[in-house]
Amino acid sequence: MAGNELLSLLEYVEQERGISRDELIEALEKSLASAARKSIEYGKEIRVKVNRLTGLINAYVDFEVSEGSTKGDYINIEEAKKLRSDAKVGEIVSKDIPKNDFGRIAAQTARQTMLQQLKKAEKARVFEDFKNSIGLIVSGIVRRFDAGNVILDFQKAEGIISSKDKIPGDNFIAGERVNALLAEINTSGSGPSLILTRTNRNFLRRLFEREITEIADGTVEIKGIARDPGSRAKVSVISHNQRVDPIGACIGLRGSRVKNVMAEIGGERIDIIRYDEDITQYITNALQPAVPGKVDYDHDNKMANVYVNKEQIKLAIGKNWQNAKLVGQLLGIRVNIFPEEETESLFEKQINEAVRTLAESLSVHEDIAKILVNNGFVTPEGLRGAEKSDLMTIEGLNEEIIDAIFKTIGKTV
Fold first, then answer.
1. What is the pLDDT of residues 257-310, one digit of tens each?
2. CATH assignment of 3-128?
3. What is the pTM of this model?
4. Domain locations in the chain?
5. How far is CA 391 from CA 371, 373, 382, in A?
């Protein structure tokens, strides 16, 4: 390749790819040196220099000067002085490499290596340009489609929204501008550099920050997000200003703010939830539009048993358990939904168990134990703190029964 042709190519790549000429020349010098080393087995180090003004390429091989014969990495002193008159034993001298010594294979390798170096330099440039945008919304133009993936143009870089990162119902056309969250930057390997997503919960978070001033300035804080992309989402919020209603701020006048967010994500329905430090109240809020009758939360197992009226059971569960799953995802817990009648059945089981246990402890009939349990005396310890006069007022008990109970529990009458 003539020097002027190389300079023209470097100028074209610099303008089209945004990579400086110095970076390109450095990559070319490395690639040619690497290619030359594969075909030239002599010499300690091979160096390639590209003249910045003429585009001409010169290659050199370094030898260590020795008193012996010229072989491998060494050159004898007589040959060295022909290259440099003041050469001394132990010094390094350089010798031009004839162009025909590169060979056809070396030239092909140089092209491949240069392309690799160019891609590496380009990806490094893209990383520098976009590293501060990771986790933020970026906007690109749809250029083409590849096996269900969408390829976006960002002028100096390409981005990809894979099929799994598209919202169901996303149907883009070439030339359309698309918003997405920059998830990561591909700095190695082939393919587009910018990895994008529209299904990540943080994409929804950034949309709220962009649309709602109170969230952007920190007055309202998003505490959690759960999504079934394209279908439904739950966003929990809290206000750090008593005069600002977090739900009203997110919804906006006639729902204008939340509608703008929904329009960006294909009409995905969004439930705005009021965050609460009390986890049972938080679960109650999150289950909307259903209203639970009771919430039992197991802190150790991070599991909630929620009891709702039969008429609201479908609302609480949601289609394909969607509502319950989103609540679990939002709070990081497991949520079980039961008809409210089962609450009564569970309570009755607990009462019956307490009656049986107390009857055995006191050696009395279960009818007597039930009377005691119904009046708040569930354990022998509770009875030891009672006075005989207190028990005498309970219907169904008499002095003989009370004395027998006190004797059993070791209480002095």
1. 999 999 999 999 999 999 999 999 999 999 999 999 889 999 999 999 999 988
2. 3.30.1480.10
3. 0.65
4. 3-128, 137-199, 215-342, 346-409
5. 10, 12, 12
